[in-house]
Design brief:
Layout (H helix, E strand, L loop, with lengths): L6 E4 L5 H12 L3 E6 L3 H13 L4 E5 L5 H15 L4 E4 L14 H29 L3 E6 L12 H21 L4 E8 L8 H5 L3 H6 L10 H12 L10 E4 L7
Parallel strand pairs: 1-2, 1-4, 2-3, 4-5, 5-6, 6-7
Length: 251
């Protein structure tokens, strides 16, 4: 499986799952433009590791809740690489708030970053891909939270369920242009955001105990599915969601 000569744009690539995706695409041969929001040190490190693989890396600050920032990100990617063959919408917002305490402003912020942002970015990149005339791949990161309810995540769950349906709608309308649109739905993945709870003597065993394979995922586990969907070998799959959760949602 190779992505040699392809040009990727990944959001949220500085850390966690996004970083793992950037590295997997680069190892397969893609040049990568990726965005980050705050952690410049992590983004710089990711770029250096991509370049150490012999691939080009371009870093851009972007806010997925801001339409102007999204369009600037696309312009940056096209300017740096000459085009976009692969888009991965990985950036998102993940707040835990009890349902009765979610304010309208918090609801709008989460839906804005996690659903409106991927919609606007995918729309802009799809237009670019159509202009290029060679098709492309759009891959969005959803979540098993789109299928299974968890406490304090009502807004996040709605957004991720929306991402799944957005991918299906895009797949239908963009198929005539050769643009394949799919999603990956991770389960519990060990990142900076989850490492504390997974290491906790009480919550850690409880969370891992719900996973038949007995461990939390690593960013590389999710990245492997993304690279698979981005590859030329996967040319007859669109509108689908691949669940990567160690078996958590089978029971």
């Amino acid at each position: 499986m190779t992505l040699a000569g392809t040009r990727a744009l990944v959001t949220g690539g500085g850390r966690g799952i996004g970083r793992g995706i950037c590295m997997a695409l680069a190892r397969a041969g893609a040049d990568v433009v990726f965005s980050y929001r705050r952690d410049v040190a992590a983004a710089t490190k990711t770029a250096q590791e991509i370049e150490a693989l012999g691939r080009r890396a371009t870093v851009a600050v972007a806010d997925m809740g801001d339409e102007g920032s999204i369009h600037q990100l696309v312009a940056t990617a096209v300017g740096a690489q000459g085009g976009i063959d692969i888009l991965v919408c990985s950036a998102g917002m993940h707040w835990r708030t009890p349902f009765l305490d979610i304010s309208a402003a918090e609801w709008d912020a989460v839906l804005g970053a996690d659903l409106r942002g991927p919609f606007l970015l995918s729309q802009a990149v799809a237009r670019q891909m159509i202009a290029q005339g060679d098709g492309g791949r759009i891959i969005a990161i959803s979540s098993i939270s789109a299928d299974v309810a968890y406490p304090d995540l009502a807004h996040y769950q709605v957004a991720k369920a929306g991402v799944r349906m957005l991918v299906r709608g895009m797949a239908l309308e963009l198929a005539p242009h050769g643009i394949l649109c799919n999603a990956v739905a991770p389960g519990i993945v060990e990142t900076d955001l989850t490492r504390g709870s997974l290491a906790d003597s009480v919550t850690g065993p409880r969370r891992r105990g719900r996973i038949p394979l007995g461990r939390a995922g690593q960013p590389e586990d999710i990245a492997a599915a993304v690279a698979f969907l981005a590859s030329e070998e996967m040319r007859w799959m669109t509108g689908a969601t691949i669940t990567v959760d160690g078996g958590q949602t089978v029971w």
